[in-house]
Amino acid sequence: MNNYHIITPVFNDWRSLNKLLKNIDKNFKKFNGKLKIIVVNDCSTLGPVIEIKKLKKINEVILINLKTNLGSQKSISVALRYLFKKKINSIITVIDADGEDDFKQIKKMIGKANKNKKKIIVSNRTLRKEGLIFKILYRVHLFLTYLLTGKWMSFGSFSSFHSNNLKILLSSKDTWLAYSGAVMKNTKILNLYAARKKRYYDKSKLSLFKLFTHALKISAIFKKRIITNIFVIIIFTYILSYFQFSQPLMYLILITLFLQNVVISMLYLLTNYENFYNSQKFIKKISIYKS
Fold this sequence. Notes:
about 45% helix, about 290 residues, elongated, 10 helices, 8-stranded mixed beta sheet, about 20% strand
């Protein structure tokens, strides 16, 4: 496989994008084949600045400008459907532009994707540098997700896969909610592990609220399984109440699970999935920069 596409969503952080492009360009110096970068401009308030003249190995930078701010997950979904309609034969990599995903891992991930064309290679983060409270809540999020879905999801968007996986990945509407959840639910994965790197510039914008809403979106993807598991947990909890367990605690668990199910159901119902099928309507303009 000598064709490579790298997708990265960007909102205003053009400085980080250009550093990422420079790093990828150097890292692919001895790679054979065509390398194209798909930059999704998520309706940035700052005009795009792409330093294409300094790139030697990257053949093209395709800039997809969106009409409205969709967020990183929907931006990735738009780019995936764009490539699917192009009917490309390529290895596709998804990476954040902020520097936290280790660009040096891309070649290894591409190599694995070439050898495992029916799987999506995901990079799990082994180290996080946030504060103690954030780390604890992140672990709680992982545990609860595992408890309710049976899936341990310690990876984000950083992944590589052969383009023949696009059909099954986009066969459902799940990428419109959360890319990582869609990957876990709909495809076979191969896990790799890498430390979370320091951001190129500024501080992370991932707040506890955003982490919470992201967890809810992943939960909505596994809605049917979660409803079944919650039903089992409720029955088990109700049975325990007859064996002198703390009834206030039992009621708290039941109410918490009930409310969580309500929130997940509402999120699922309120998500406009028609936009997934018509995601190309969000594209304002596509610009192609050649080195």
